[in-house]
Amino acid sequence: MDRNWNSYERKRFIKGDTKIKTDDFDPEAFKHDGFSDREAYLETYAPALATEERLEKELNNFTPPRIGEINNSPYQALVIRYGILHQLIQQPDYNMEKVDLIDAVQDWQRDLIQSQDEDNFPETDDLLHLAQAAVDYKNQINDSELHMVFSYFQLHNNAHDSKHEYYTWLDFFQRLSALDRFPKVSRSDSPEHARDTIEKGVWSLQEQALVYEVDDPDYDELVGIPENYVDVIRDWLYYEMSDENYRQMLETLDIFDHQAVLIEARDRFGVTGKNYGKNENRRENIVQAGVYPSELLKQVVPKDDLKDIVDEYGLDAHKLKTEDMVSAIIEYFEQSQKSVEEGKQEVDLYVDAFEDIADGAVTDVPPQLQDLVDADNPSEKLDILFEDATGKIFQEVFNLEGTTQLGQQASGVVADGEIQQDAQWLLWDNKRRRQEFRLGSDARSKIKNYIDTKGEQHNVEWFLIIAPDFTDQAATNALQLEMQVGTDIRLVRAEDLKALAELWREEYASDDRELPLSVFSGSEIFKVETAAGWLETQFS
Question: What superkingdom does the record give (predicted)?
Answer without folding.
Answer: Archaea
